Amino acid sequence: MAECVPFSKGEWDRVQPLHEVKILEKNELLLRQGEICTTLAFVVSGALCQFRTEDVDPYAYDFSFEADYAVDFASFAGQKPSTIGIRALRTSVLVCISKKNLDAAYKVSPAFQEFGRLMAERALVYDDDRVKSLLYDTPEERYLNLMERDPELLQEIPLYSIASYLGIRPESLSRVRANLNKKK
Amino acid sequence: MAECVPFSKGEWDRVQPLHEVKILEKNELLLRQGEICTTLAFVVSGALCQFRTEDVDPYAYDFSFEADYAVDFASFAGQKPSTIGIRALRTSVLVCISKKNLDAAYKVSPAFQEFGRLMAERALVYDDDRVKSLLYDTPEERYLNLMERDPELLQEIPLYSIASYLGIRPESLSRVRANLNKKK
DNA sequence: CGCCAGGTTGAAGCGCTTCAACGTCTGTGG
DNA sequence: CCACAGACGTTGAAGCGCTTCAACCTGGCG
To answer: β-pairing, B39-45 with B92-98?
Structure first.
């Protein structure tokens, strides 16, 4: 975490205690849909998914893998009710910081400001890609891209969650996969 | 610009000269697709659109209205060729800062760091909404939302650009609109 | 064993696309 | 001033891809 930004020793000592390590078992919730998201979680290991419960099937809106952040940012930044929940797909180790502590960290550490900016920018590039992918790529292409990003995912979470991330129905994903098998 | 972040007088004096005001006439390009995006532009007035030229029709990927930023962020941050172009939809007044100057500004001003972070976070919430909208909303709903955000847009840019922003073909948008007229 | 969750497959339906024709408006040149 | 061309939008008809609904299969588990 500290490698990419030049923290001074003093800064790091003040900022580090504001964090908290949290371990989530598989299927445990980091955030319940409708609650205010008070915690920003950095995924040290494991994987989480953000989902909506309105729909019949648990609807996966996004995944967070190692070195990603897991958060409903709109809820966290604006301190308003979240529109999604967050659940651990596997046992996951998180480094968490509360909204209050994060604001405090930003106050005492310019380097942490920079770090926060870089993280937001990285997330921005990711979201940008996702928008492009939803606009321009076929479900099959989106599926192949996701598999490339995390091949193990397939072994651990139901296909209907993957389908919802891709923006299609489970049955359609099933056919996409059948098609890919035929091609090979 | 300075209102939302506590710039000290000295900081602001050092950062302000790094910016440059630019005026773009209608249809003038801020960025040509394939070039490296070297400039971050804040839209003081006017409107721009980000588009791809691969497609037959100019494909609008996103719009930038007043108080938005116009930039291919992936290209700007990574200094690699852009996948989109940026064009003025109307005569637009921009406050620009180059990648080099922005990095310099971040170095001399912690308040500017914070400002940058807040801007990235705002863009993040926007992109997040867009992803949700593409996943969950119908083209008709997306159309109504866009019209609410900038009703004048309709008068100034071709419908086929709006269609591509929504992720549908011009003919489909035409039918959506015909449908809405019938309903009223 | 029997149940249930997850996945696949088939058939029908629907929404967006594709292609083609036509309408309208605007600008341009004879 | 009219004629014509080109850009933009609309409309119709056919096609295709994803959805919907229903049936069925499989593996895990009480």
So the answer is: antiparallel
Contact B124 A125 (CB under 8 A): no
A6 touches chain B (CB under 8 A): no
Please tell me the distance from the alpha carbon of residue B163 to that of residue A91, in angstroms, as a whole number.
43
Between CA A9 and CA A14 the distance in angstroms is 9
Q: Which chain A positions have a beta carbon within 8 Å of B167's beta carbon?
A: 134-135
* B161: amino acid identity, one letter: S
Residue in B73, B129, B132 closest to A124 by CB: B73
Contact present, A148 and A141 (Cβ < 8 Å): no
**Distance of B56 CA from C18 C1′ (whole Å):** 14
Measured to protein CB atoms, the chain C nucleotides within 7 Å are 5-11, 15-20
pLDDT tens sequence for chain B (184 residues): 445 566 677 777 777 788 899 999 888 899 998 999 999 999 999 889 998 876 556 778 899 988 899 999 999 999 999 999 999 988 899 999 999 999 999 998 888 899 999 999 999 999 999 999 999 999 999 999 999 988 888 888 899 999 999 999 999 999 999 999 876 6
